[in-house]
Design a protein that fits this description.
Blueprint (H helix, E strand, L loop, with lengths): L12 H16 L1 E2 L5 E3 L1 H6 L5 E4 L3 H4 L10 E2 L7 H5 L6 E4 L4 H12 L5 E4 L2 H7 L33 H8 L5 E5 H7 L19 H17 L8 H12 L2 E6 H13 L15 H9 L6 H8 L8 H8 L8 H16 L5 E6 L5 E9 L8 E5 L2 E2 L2 E6 L1 H18 L10 H23 L5 E6 L5 E5 L1
Parallel strand pairs: 2-6, 3-4, 3-5, 5-6, 8-9, 10-13, 10-14
Antiparallel strand pairs: 1-2, 7-11, 12-13, 14-15
Helix pairs in contact: 9-16, 9-17, 10-15, 11-13, 14-15, 16-17
Amino acid sequence: MSNDPSPPRQLSEIELAERMLRVNWNSTVVRHRRGYCSLPPEFVAQQGKTVQLVDVRESEELTGTVGHVPGSRWVPLAEVEAISRDVLEDTLIVVICDDGKRSAEAAMRLQTAGMSWVASMDGGLRAWKDRGFTTSRDDSILTRKNVEAPSVPMRPNRKGPLSLDEIRHHVGDPRTVRWAKLAAFLMHGKTSCVDGRDDHGVVGTPGGDAGEFLLTLASVEWITGKEIPGAQLPKLLLRWVEAFGHFYFHTDVNALNTYIKKLRADPRIPESSLPLRTDPPQAWRNFSAGPPQEIRQFVLEHLVGADTTGCGHIRFMLTKSAEYGIREGLVRDFLNAFVTTRWNGLVELEYVPLSGGHREGAVVNVRLEEDVQPYTLVPLISPQVSGMQMFVNHPDVTSYSRQLYADFVCQHLMLNGLGETDRAKVFGVMEALGAKQAGLTLGALAKGLPFYTVRFGKNREFTVEAN
């Protein structure tokens, strides 16, 4: 007789988003001996309205040389306990100061007051600016002393497309757009997918870093007429990460649930090797990051199937490879290499689960009116808007990155015999094939949705137009 408990209640879209937000927080936060928690500036920069930012410095510091994080609330350190009386105890709060010392004290005081989801931004504004993120000296922060809650707006899912005015209002909100110098973003950031289910500010392209990696390799195969051996993929991933830093590949809750069901139904895998049915979602994330050696080959088999690949763009590459101009075997080799290389300790390979279903109401192409250079300011835009989502695509930033990828495979890897003189050819194929693939993916996932172009000028001014 089975001792399994009754099936759990199906979570709503909002509950799933709330759960995944807190799982991501717990996966990133660092707990210190002194009794406070901290989060890196990169994580803080990615958050939109879901996390409340509180600056605890003195008033003159907020509008001085250093400035403050746009969208922050101001609560002086001496008054910080007031937050615990004004908001729900499970509100997600990141406390900020100049170097992380006063914010660490504030975080400890709030935790003592009963708040469980509070963290200091590690290194403070010094680290924020060191990562290339911009600040504001707008004195309106001096009147923003109220902290909002709850962290995730509890509003019903609305229907219908997003309007031009809604996009304009969203892009003009400093809490939903962060700015970073391109050179710093390339060093510390990651290119996310255009998927609107992401809960943080993104620079987006179909498939994110994974999509661009596969696009680069497919272009090399097109030009050289030679397949890249699957055994070479782990080393290529390692070299790629050494050159470009963090690597983004996402899945989703539906794909993960399918994967879990397959594992539990596989007679080769003992139930005792898997997380308990009553364990929190974090247990499955930890398990998938490094399953027991004796069952890894079976876990891998279930993790890399088409129905367990949560990124629609990568799944289309796998199931519609001919249309996407890519070899199916190359996609499968990548999936296997990504998982096994991650298991072997390459922590820069990020496997990000997104929650819920698609609720996008528009496609937004983010264009920069200046020529993209290392010092160019790049907007990271949250896809969550007006109770819905939007696909966010950054073609100009992506094009700049592709020039670097083409140079890397030709000049540094000399992949499939390519050389320095082949860079322009590889880049040209990447641009043409990438445009075709983006059209196919957005044509399938965004069918019938309005397309908007947001154009940013040199001084961060912007216009929004319907296409």
